[in-house]
Amino acid sequence: MKETILARAPSSVLPSDATTKQTLDRKKVQKRISQMFEYRENFVKRWKEIRDHQLPYLGEFDDTQDLINPARRRDLNIYNDVAWEANQIFAAGVMSGLTPPSRQWFRFSFSNKQLSEHSEAATILDERMEITIDVLAKSNFYNAIHNVYMELAFGQCPLGIFPSEKGVTFIQFPIGTYAIDVGADGRVNTFARKYQMTAIQLREQFGEANLPKNVLDVIKNDSAVYSTMFNVYWLVEPNPNVAEKEGRQYMPFRSIYWVDGSQDDEWLYIGGCKEFPVPVARYQVNGLQPYGKGAGWYVEGDSKVLGLYEKDSAALAELIIKPPMQSSEDVLQKGVNLIPGGLTITNGQGVVSPLFQVRAEAITVIQNKIEKIERSIKRSYNSDLFLMLDQLDKGQMTAEEVIKRTQEKLQQLGPVVERLQYEFLSPIIERVYNILDRAQIFPPIPPDLEKVLEGGEVKIEYISPLAQAQKMSGLVNIEQAVAFIAQLAQMYPEVKAKLDPLKTVDSYFEKLGAPATIKKTNEEVEMMIKQQQEAEQKQAQIQQAALIAQSAAPAAQAARNLTEAARDGNPALQEWLGMGVGNV
């Protein structure tokens, strides 16, 4: 099996450390990888059964037939392709529902609420999120992850994440080409694979200085350098010598390459990774088992019975169309014309008739059985749910409608979605983010914000259509509560005091996954409310002063009129106003 250069890219480009090479025990490493592949054999038989009877075009096993003729037909045991069709719908559904290329499906936020309310900090986080999304879109991420979803029917599928000249490159490893193991927490932390490369490919990938003697001999003698295949092993595992020191020998994970048949001290490459470079998507897992179980496991019996029914249905149809015939010996000697409308001459006694009658109702019975099994297979692959979620993504149906119609399905799929987000998507985003950060792709943080962001934990929130559909129940609760208070307030206005509008909006935005940039902080809102109240109070004072002045104007005019009349010589007014002659 030949590989591209990117598929074989080590996790670091630094040269191997001589001291690390000398201290690494080849026997222990080979024993570790042998145990992993030996344990894997318990699952290989089931994977091949799923491939042969459901998904014939997936997987690459070490079969003799696969190695001799990779282009051979693999669908010879397939009599009904409903499983393949359902798996395609499942992969496309998870793609559009969980990681849609056409829209944003995750966002960054701070675990600290105070930082979340800090507008400048939130803007920086949104900017980094947009760069990460752009890098994923420009890479082969979406092509690779679709292949991952196609193979989830086997139970699991790994995705390698490597730095490249263009940013980040993703490699999906097919079923049958790898072995995995888990740590004490149940998460996959060890990955191993065995593949083949030519001497020229090895020199191109690892450099001639790192090649073992058996490979150099082939290159030196120029003997079949393009056809001689070498078994190459790659192992990624937790580093037992991890420490807070510089150097890949102290990184959390070590990455080791070597060639089968080389000397114990001959290593192609020994490197390290700060994050596990091969996250594994798993469908359903029991306990601490490294390998999962997917839809292919659940419908293995149905798919085999479906094949039997399809063969029986074809046999019945053929018996009805071309039934076994019986005839007398003299007719057989003359020959029977089986062409439609043909004529067979007999002596009047010879008979040509079906040996037995096949009732047409038998085909109806089998077809009903076939349709029932097909529906069962489609349900196990969740194809009906994802067809409905596709309508949600296209805007033809709201998330609330999807929930009402597929509440039970969403609940069943919920643990799978949570596992994919926790074990698979989050490690992918974290590794991509850290690769970009180490490569200084992100704009630098302003000095005045460094102290503000110091110690701030960034969390990943998923806002894909499937995640929103699952969160929609929380939004519905908020909407129902607000509607209830609005309705009750018509009779009892005092109940409006029970609702905090700002906290309600915050909770709704958080569950909806709205961008931080479209929401004002609580401080900004409080300042706006204060300014509005002050403006309203000032306006009220102006209006009140105007009213007072307006009401006082007639009284002042009347007083002026009286004074003028008194001055005109009216004695009574003069005396009433205290304007006697002596006072004049």
Count up the helices.
Answer: 20
Based on helices, strands and strand pairing, what is the structural class? Answer: alpha+beta
Summarize model confidence as the mean pLDDT: 81
Largest sheet: 5 strands, antiparallel
Question: CA-to-CA gap between the ends?
Answer: 126 Å
Description:
By secondary structure, this protein is of the alpha+beta class. The protein contains 20 helices and twelve strands. Strands 4-5-6-7-8 form a five-stranded antiparallel β-sheet. A three-stranded antiparallel β-sheet has the order 3-2-9, with helices on one face. Strands 1-12 form a two-stranded antiparallel ribbon. Strand 2 and strand 3 form a beta hairpin. The longest helix is centred in the last third of the chain and has 46 residues, at 522-567. It is flat, with a radius of gyration of 39 Å.
